[in-house]
Amino acid sequence: MDADAGLSPSEGRRRQRRSDCLAAFRAVAALLTDGGCSTDHIDALAGVWAAAEPAVAQRLVERDRDIADAARSRPPALLRRHLQRMVTTIAAELGVERARHIRDQRAVRHWYVTSEGVGRLSGQLEAGDYQRVAAVLDAAARRLMRHDSS
After folding, report:
1. Is the pLDDT higher at 142 or at 7?
2. What is the value of pTM for the model shown?
3. Are 67 and 22 in contact (CB under 8 A)?
4. pLDDT tens, 27-72?
5. What angle in degrees, to the nearest 10, is found between the helix axes of 76-104 and 64-73?
6. With bands split at pLDDT 50, 70 and 90, how would you rate the model's confidence at 1?
7. How many whole angstroms separate alpha carbon 126 and alpha carbon 104?
8. CA dihedral 43, 58, 92, 52 (to 10 degrees)
9. How far is CA 88 from CA 46, 51, 57, 77, 119, in A?
10. CA 90 remoteness from chain centre
């Protein structure tokens, strides 16, 4: 889709976005085929979808039927606003899920290796917890090294 096809580069990109969008959003594609929405609706969806973070974009695809229902009952400009609100909601949901996942992955382990005569530490913490633990460990290590050098 370029000058060879008689299209401007921007029109070629717009048509490619539409095509990608229709391939991902089957219910919306069926709605377009049935005349229930216009290419302006598809352009609104394609623009919001293309601008979304990958995880958010995937969640939009999972809400295909809801989006088709929204496209059926809204003009393109209102659909775009509706989709932008969906993106905001999904991003917030994913933020909560991500924070929960990070919290669930927290762990601190320590063990003593008798054969080597050393102790080992390992852990995975949220950023704030990591900074607090690192500060305590750094202070303790400095005290130990000062004591060792005396």
Report:
1. 142
2. 0.63
3. no
4. 999 999 999 999 999 999 999 999 998 889 999 999 999 999 999 9
5. 160
6. very low
7. 10
8. -40
9. 16, 12, 11, 17, 46
10. 9
Secondary structure (H, E, C), the chain: CCHHHCCCHHHHHHHHHHHHHHHHCHHHHHHHHCCCCCHHHHHHHHHHHHHCCHHHHHHHHHCHHHHHHHHHHCCHHHHHHHHHHHHHHHHHHHHHHHHHHHHHCCEEEEEEECCCCEEEEEEECCHHHHHHHHHHHHHHHHHHHHHHHC
Structure-block tokens of residue 124: 């995975």
Residues 6+ apart with CB under 8 A from 115: none
d(Cα 66, Cα 69) in Å, to the nearest integer? 5
Instruction: Kindly state the tokens that stand for 67.
Output: 């989006």
- Which whole-number Å values give the CA distances from 81 to 21, 35, 69, in the listed order? 18, 22, 15
Residue with tokens 């029109």: 11
Q: Report the percent of the chain where pLDDT is more than 90.
A: 52
